[in-house]
């Protein structure tokens, strides 16, 4: 089942946000990576959640629903509901005193966005363009399962203004995919990558490592398959066993063996070495790109503290110092949208101490993003020890930025604890 929403304050039906404070005024100054910087200096990103899947994978706790779980909601109505929330969002930002900003990035995630017809994704993108405008060179991404698109579908997306597609490959080994309950044939991945490239789209391939029963040899097959497809970007995430999922129940009952931390560390090191040798640079702990131009700018917006509005059931948003989250079920979302009310279920205001903790936590993971001079004095005094322990790169620190070594990436949480 999808994870629970956070506990926060009630969200008003009109959705209005606290008006920008002094640090959001156009003449304020702050470190560029800080969410306290003026609103006009922060990029604005749009996330569109499409909460539909054909089947629920046993490891997944995302806010997704199969056809039998929709309680009468029609997938065919979803695009119009999402477009209504976009219009509502623009009105809220205007009324709350935030400057109009074109969207620098748009990201369709899920679920499986490509379960919807390509024309519906195109309509939602067109509505985003009509509502806010798109910045010059805006990045527009959709996630996709390899078995949910064909060449014509991808051409339609490219013609509509999409620039990037992120395929959920997860593994090249059928037995690993079966354990994850992924439905696609790994032999289809090269085909969809070729179609996407032919359409002019950047391609990202997403991997999961540490699946129960997966061996280092299995993982090497997946690494080799990724490199053979020559994507522009690769994400590789260690499998996390989330409470409440089918996989968690299987591990508790002894049906499968929990992933090994040591094996996952070996898998990460092997992937990083292979990707680096093939020209992919790590820029965030779990992400590699063929040069800076192919980094996921949308995800970087989350990590460096820009603003974003999340559209759809269960989506999270973050503007200024306010974070909020929408009601989870598509039926509840549709009801709020039909009533002209905010779909937000709750929200919280992020205080200075929490904001600083999040800033350090997120920027530590991004290569060269955290400036040592912006750390608190006690944290700055920790940097020399982190270098001595082999967790932080010394030459980068001399240049003024904190950059994790390979060992530091494996122990990123420990580094953050020493800095906060």
From TrEMBL:
Pfam families: Radical_SAM
Location within or outside the cell: Cytoplasm
This protein's record includes keyword Metal-binding: yes
Biased composition (Low complexity): 22-35
KW Zinc (keyword) present: no
Alphabetical UniProt keywords: 4Fe-4S, Chaperone, Cytoplasm, Heme, Iron, Iron-sulfur, Metal-binding, S-adenosyl-L-methionine
Principal location: cytoplasm
Domain of life: Bacteria
Region of interest called Disordered, as start-end residue ranges on this chain: 1-35
Residue intervals of the Radical SAM core domain: 38-278
Record's function text: Probably acts as a heme chaperone, transferring heme to an unknown acceptor. Binds one molecule of heme per monomer, possibly covalently. Binds 1 [4Fe-4S] cluster. The cluster is coordinated with 3 cysteines and an exchangeable S-adenosyl-L-methionine.
Family of this protein: Belongs to the anaerobic coproporphyrinogen-III oxidase family. HemW subfamily.
Protein name: Heme chaperone HemW
Source species of the chain: Herbiconiux aconitum
């Amino acid at each position: 089942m999808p994870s629970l929403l956070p506990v926060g304050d009630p969200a008003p039906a009109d959705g209005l946000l606290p008006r920008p404070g002094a640090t959001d005024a156009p003449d304020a100054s702050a470190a560029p990576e800080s969410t306290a910087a003026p609103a006009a200096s922060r990029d604005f990103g749009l996330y569109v959640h499409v909460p539909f899947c054909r089947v629920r994978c046993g490891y997944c706790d995302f806010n997704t629903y199969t056809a039998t779980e929709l309680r009468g909601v029609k997938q065919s109505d979803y695009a119009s509901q999402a477009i209504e929330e976009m219009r509502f969002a623009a009105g809220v930002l205007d009324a709350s005193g935030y400057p109009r900003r074109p969207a620098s990035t748009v990201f369709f995630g899920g679920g499986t966005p490509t379960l919807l017809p390509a024309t519906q994704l195109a309509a939602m993108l067109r509505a985003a363009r009509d509502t806010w405008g798109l910045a010059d060179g805006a990045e527009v991404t959709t996630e996709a399962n390899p078995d949910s698109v064909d060449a014509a579908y991808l051409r339609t997306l490219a013609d509509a203004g999409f620039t990037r597609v992120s395929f959920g490959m997860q593994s090249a080994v059928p037995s690993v995919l079966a354990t994850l309950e992924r439905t696609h044939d790994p032999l289809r991945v090269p085909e969809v990558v070729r179609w996407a490239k032919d359409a002019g789209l950047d391609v990202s391939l997403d991997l999961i490592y540490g699946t129960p029963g997966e061996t280092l040899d299995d993982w090497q097959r997946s690494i080799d398959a990724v490199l053979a497809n020559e994507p522009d970007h690769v994400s590789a995430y260690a499998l996390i066993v989330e409470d409440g999922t089918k996989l968690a129940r299987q591990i508790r009952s002894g049906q499968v063996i929990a992933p090994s931390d040591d094996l996952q560390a070996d898998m990460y090191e092997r992937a990083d070495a292979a990707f680096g040798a093939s020209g992919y640079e790590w820029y965030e702990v779990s992400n590699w790109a063929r040069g800076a131009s192919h980094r996921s700018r949308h995800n970087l917006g989350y990590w460096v503290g820009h603003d974003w509005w999340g559209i759809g059931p269960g989506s999270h948003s973050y503007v200024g110092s306010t974070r909020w989250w929408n009601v989870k079920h598509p039926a509840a979302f549709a009801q709020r949208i039909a009533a002209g009310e905010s779909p937000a279920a709750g929200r919280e205001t992020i205080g200075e101490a929490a904001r600083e903790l999040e800033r350090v936590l997120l920027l530590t993971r991004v290569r060269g993003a955290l400036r040592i001079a912006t750390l608190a004095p006690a944290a700055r005094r920790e940097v020399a020890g982190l270098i001595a322990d082999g967790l932080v790169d010394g030459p980068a620190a001399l240049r003024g930025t904190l950059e994790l070594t390979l060992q530091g990436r494996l122990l990123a949480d420990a580094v953050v604890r020493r800095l906060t």
